[in-house]
Amino acid sequence: MNILLLGSGGREHAFAHKITNSPKCNQLYVAPGNAGTAAIATNVDLGITDFPAIKEFILKHSIDMLVVGPEEPLVKGVADYFAAEEETKNLPVVGPQQLGATLEGSKDFSKQFMQRNNVPTAASATFTKETIEEGLDFIRQQRLPVVLKADGLAAGKGVLICETLEDAEQSFNEMLLESKFGSASDKVVVEEFLKGIELSVFVATDGKSYKILPEAKDYKRIGEQDTGLNTGGMGAVSPVPFAKGDFLQKVEEKVVIPTINGLTKENIDYKGFVFIGLMNMEGEPYVIEYNVRMGDPETQAVLPRIKSDFVDLLYAMGTGTLDQYKIELEDFYTTTIVMVAGGYPGAYEKNLPIEGLESSTSESITFHAGTTSKEDKVVTNGGRVMGITGKGHSIEEALSNAYTRVEQITWKDVYYRKDIGQDIINYGK
Description:
Elements: E1 2-7, H1 10-20, E2 27-32, H2 35-38, E3 42-43, H3 51-60, E4 65-68, H4 71-75, H5 78-84, E5 93-94, H6 98-105, H7 107-116, E6 124-128, H8 132-140, E7 146-150, E8 159-162, H9 165-177, E9 187-192, E10 197-205, E11 210-212, E12 217-218, E13 221-223, E14 227-230, E15 235-238, H10 245-265, E16 272-281, E17 284-291, H11 298-302, H12 310-319, E18 333-340, E19 364-368, E20 371-374, E21 377-380, E22 384-392, H13 395-406, H14 422-425
Parallel strand pairs: 1-2, 1-4, 2-3, 4-5
Antiparallel strand pairs: 6-9, 7-8, 7-9, 10-11, 10-16, 12-15, 13-14, 15-18, 16-17, 18-22, 19-22, 20-21
Helix pairs in contact: 6-7, 8-9
InterPro entries: ATP-grasp, ATP_grasp_subdomain_1, PreATP-grasp_dom_sf, PRibGlycinamid_synth_ATP-grasp, PRibGlycinamide_synth, PRibGlycinamide_synth_C-dom, PRibGlycinamide_synth_C_sf, PRibGlycinamide_synth_N
Keywords: ATP-binding, Ligase, Nucleotide-binding, Purine biosynthesis
Protein name: Phosphoribosylamine--glycine ligase
């Protein structure tokens, strides 16, 4: 098959790595891609929401399947666009149609979907500028801390955990009255705080059948011991020790099955990934959020653990034949360390030369994210620059292999967390 993959981050390099290792892939194009995808596929200068230009490319290059990495094109209706065009109506697209993508595009829609389909989640209420006084009253009735969520897409930064009433009231006003997150905070979801251990469960679905992929735990804060500002993700580990038999069975019965059944019942055309952000509260799963694509950097930890053919999985999702696909997993651990630009998630420099890429180890995979090539040199081109995934027979071994590779790569003011996975190692001790 000739395959077109949309996106440019570490998730997309991990997808490209898996797709190009499949004998089912003839030619992979990545739009727009990064320096890592350029080494294994053909990068294409296309905007990920320029649907007419993407269509023209698909027809010109005889593309057999479109795989959508990030959420923005999905929320803007990329799957609907190709389904409605006569020349592309039969093209398998991996990614839900616009209504399904609203599970990520609107926190309010997502919460209502969970409530309608009896998916366990935190109690919440949604407010706008017009109902701000009711919202402030609602906040004052909550136990602290309280969670405020921008309704729309905010690049992973629209969730605030407020420890004091003063902070909650001020942030709520800033979100609604001062557009703290732009139009994403025209509506704000106020939610009870769930105390427990977070993890992510990934589900592949064709809208009828589903396959549960390896779970992962990611690390959002910039600072060690989970301090400082939220980021897009500083690392990930898979599998997660506390997500064993009994708990994962509860996740499947109480969360995955009601979610897939809800999509069917509500006639939501969903051929893609469901990323379920969960809280393990004393052994019971509660859904924090849905995302409608794979996570980043969790993908870089999850995909290397899939043993069965990945292109077969994508094609089965896109063509509604997932019930015929058998998923097989590797039995090793993976850990991903994200290397970022100095200053991230605030202001940071770009175009810094990256050294040490020519060396490599067999126990690790180097995934590019914010990189590009200039004059035959790989340079930084974003906040999260690379994700290094180590493999091992234990989390300790996987971490050791990841950090060995991390220490070989450098650029000016590079930063990474040195404590990824330590909470997992110490879990239960």
